[in-house]
Specification:
241 residues, alpha/beta, Aminopeptidase, nine-stranded mixed β-sheet, 5 helices, 9 strands, 24% helix, 22% strand
Amino acid sequence: MPNLTIKPVRDNGAATDEDNWTVQLEPESRRPKSAADDMPEEVVSLVRTGKLSLDIRRADPGDLPVVLELIDEAKLWLPTKLTDQWSRNWVDQKGRKRSDRVQDSLLQGTTWIVTVTYKQQQYAVATVTIEPNANPLVWDRAGELDDSAVYLSRLVVARKFAGLKIGPALLNWACDHAWRRHRAELVRVDVWTRNFALHKYYRAQGFRWQGYCADMSYPSRARFQRSTSRKVRKAPRLLTI
């Protein structure tokens, strides 16, 4: 697989490309399709054998439909894991539904999308959102908001690519991104309270249990964190584009 390409961090205080980021919509012809939309079966085999690269880029508002498709596919699959995650469209403290929150993150440039290109057509493989600011309802212990950390949410991998370690690859990439972009020492995630299989998954990826947040009404009370210096071995690399 290709190595992860990263932009150099400037130590002289000058703004980086990411600091100057503004919304730049991809042409409609270059929009990725959902992996569920008639994607050739050989694409998965080519990814598995390293013959197709996994590209990651910052998603923009035009990617809203395909990001929501990834989430909707996961929503249909989640009941098989004996969890009620995403079974209803939870509204946050700002009154935003899930689609509103996704749209806001796309406008803010905090959502990323993994794609694969086959015969000039892109397919959406995965997505993750990386926020620099904590939700104080979740990270509510004394001193936690002062920690050097970034916060993950909506990490979703298309079901056709399950088992190819793309989730671990995204987590490794998120650790690199968190350090070089924010000089963050920790990556944190709040996990759906009743998704115990997901709790186990994050533990297996090197995340440490940080207890539940105090707000009993919050649906994702389980808190985990991992050092940005820790990486999972034998995961594919993502090519930043």
